[in-house]
Amino acid sequence: MQIGPQTVVSRSLVPLLAVCSAASMLLTLWLIFVYVPTDRVQGVVQRIFYVHVPLAMMTFLAFGVTAVASAAYLWSRNPKYDHCAHASAEVGLLFCSLVLITGPIWAKPIWGTWWTWDARLTTTLILWLIYAGYLMLRSLTMHSEQGARYAAVLGIVGALDIPIINRSVYWWRTIHPAVLVTREGGTGLTDPRMQLTLLCSVLAFFFLFAWLLWLRYRQAVLEARMTALWAAQRIPR
Amino acid sequence: MIPLLRKEFLIEWRAREALATALLTGLLLLVVLSFAFDPTSPLRREAAPGAFWVTVVFSGVLAIGRSFVADRENDCLQGLLLAPLDRGTIFLAKVFAQTAFLLAAQLLLVPLFIVFFDLPLSAHLLPWLLALVLVGVGLSAAGILLAAIAVQTRAKEILLPLLLVPLAVPLLLAGLRVSQRAFAGKPLGEAVAWLHLAVGFDVIVLVVGWLLFEYVVED
Amino acid sequence: MSNEREIVTLVELRGVAKRYGPQWALVEVDLRCGRAESIALLGPNGAGKSTLLRILAGVTRPTRGRILWGGQEVALASASWGRKRIGFVGHRSFLYTSLSVRENLMLYASLYGLANPAQRVAELLGRFGLSFVQDRAVSHLSRGLEQRAALARALLHDPELLLLDEPFTGLDVEACAALMELLREERARGVSVVLATHDFQVAEALCERVVILVGGKFEHDGPLPASVESVYQAVVAARRQALA
Asked: Which end of chain A has fewer CB atoms at under 10 Å, N or C?
């Protein structure tokens, strides 16, 4: 119910992030479609990497933020952290969905199949399922404080489980190209122009992630304040 | 801890609810899955490990979903929480009891499974049973933590499988790989790494559950 | 009657508030409960009575405020120290329905770490007139006997403070009187009582102080009046008027 000092911060931060995000995104588009050379083995479809890989990175970052904010919430019981965890999980799920969409677009011409049960794909899909469950849990609890507590527990357990899931599906079978580790063949990014494009794209998607996170976070804070006002009206002092 | 375990076993002995749920749904799945594969095909034996672990996980999830029924009936969980006792202890007692019920049901399913899928008796049973124990502990630990959450929500029955199954994927894969080797009549070999993975999963979930159960049951 | 003796504080709530989601169940409550004191907690449904009792019992974490036992603050994490001194009877009995009365009491006796649980359980079963049903499953007990067993459960560890959350709901006159008699005995032994109830006669018979809770706030706190009902009606009516 208190009006926190973060209002001021967020008001100046949101436009800044929006500008950064838009500018870097435009630059990245130019880099991807004009500047960067076409991969000599995979052809033009390889360019989707510059979207796919940063999205995947931001997905992991988002779920990492959710886990840390969840732990902070259980520790401090400050609803601020809960809003942060919630917002990050939503943005993360969006990015995760995009990863799962861009992946098959690349895989069809290169691997000859839309979907394989390769380690990273499988991990990403399971990740998607866990955080879809996380958001579902949030919508099914009796009141927001309970939802925050349960979601925090799940956020922590889910994040701790990810490395184990990753290990297990990696052992299961894997044909995913190691993009960032240079190997022989056309899968590693050896060209410095390619590396620059990827770097720029990662930065652009980071700004986009941060911007969406702030927007969603602020919305959650305002929503909580509004429901508190509604509730206060029903029990007048 | 011991009085809590005694209580769990006593209640289970009277009602046999967990055992019956796990056993009957397991049996049902086993029958349906063995129908699904052509009995004359050699593929049947290939599919055996998959059929077995799907049965274990789903019948386990259903049984775990019922694990708080007795504790909620008369608000008994509140009674336990009122006692001067660590919440982690309540969690561990429930996990160990649940593991025992799941294992009991699965041990009864194993002979049926051998019959239905026509497995060679030379199969290496020991690693398979070890995998069963490890999966049982991990599934119960993650399951009890999530079931305590799920029973408090508006979608009690459906939420637990939705949350638990994705988290339990490593266990499922570990069980599969170990029993694939066992059914093929091969020694464990490098598949021992899967048992280590399952142990790691169990330890992490037990510790995390022990620490976080407090936040699940407070209100 | 309480004026004549020095009241030693047993437990104290300071500035306790509890919020469920956007709703405040309790708004800034201060309560001091003395040794051997008996407080009736009255209030309409949803006024926060149960929440207050559960915070006192250490099973609900207050959003704000502190709980002090004998002047010392107790955190929820280490609340087991406070829990040992509290007995709680709710409208649900906390007894496992498929276990017998004796098995239930033995379970709780060992959870409270009693030195000689069997002896203590036998003693309480005798005193509460439950010996004849001690091996019967709780699901086969009448509501009256079940609530009596619930009180026995709450008294296993000789608590200093007894919290009662509408323990008489659903009891017939006879069972009510029997339970009341047992509670009077405990009062006489110097146990403090906080009783949440809707029944004015029960409050008059058992308590020496009346606290009225409306909308999560104390609207009245004083010694037992001649007619609890008229005070209650007046307080609630005044409150309604303030709202309108």
From this structure: C
